[in-house]
Automatic annotation (TrEMBL):
Domain of life: Bacteria
Signal peptide feature range: none
Protein name according to UniProt: DUF805 domain-containing protein
GO CC entries: plasma membrane
């Protein structure tokens, strides 16, 4: 008698016991699942840097053409329209991406993704961003999915480089302020 014919056998299922560790690798785009705070920081930094880089190069061609033609060329006007369109498109993609990773970060904190709507309120949004950036996520699985695998080393390197860049800029700012006050 086979197992399919015997009604007294228990069904075979893939049950995960509470002692087993399950983790997932987060996808770069998408609003489902979770993302830990280091990935949130690194993805924000890298995408912001890429947005600034693309935006910068959206306006360089128009500046060059306008400078060479005296600013009255039809080509300069056409490039200006294209540059503005490209800039708006990049900003919209950046906004959508920022919202999706913020939703996943809320999921890691075992909160609903609708909380990201509070980021539209100026002061509240700033403090919510800080909360998402620094709060430790829930340990193990939660209602939004399995725990995210630990961040790779390159995430940690980028985070430390960016922290060093911030410290460097603050020091340069203080030095420039002091030099300006002395003059």
């Amino acid at each position: 008698m086979s197992s399919q014919q015997n009604p007294y056998l228990s069904p075979k299922t893939n049950v995960i016991s509470k002692t087993e560790e399950v983790s997932v690798i987060p996808k770069f785009f998408g609003y489902k699942g979770r993302i830990n705070r280091l990935r949130y920081f690194v993805y924000n930094f890298l995408f912001s840097f890429a947005t600034a880089f693309i935006s910068l190069f959206a306006f360089i061609p128009i500046s060059i053409i306008a400078a060479l033609s005296g600013g009255s060329s039809g080509a300069a006007m056409a490039m200006g329209g294209f540059s503005i369109f490209l800039y708006i498109a990049v900003c919209l993609v950046s906004l959508v991406y920022f919202i999706t990773i913020s939703i996943r970060r809320c999921h890691d904190l075992n909160k609903t993704g609708w909380l990201t709507l509070l980021m539209a309120i100026p002061v509240v949004g700033f403090f919510l961003y800080l909360y998402l950036l620094f709060a430790k996520g829930t340990e193990g699985a939660n209602r939004w999915g399995a725990e995210v695998i630990p961040s790779p080393t390159w995430h940690k390197v980028i985070a430390w480089l960016f922290a060093g860049l911030i410290i460097f800029c603050v020091i340069i700012g203080f030095i420039a302020g002091i030099a300006n006050a002395i003059r």
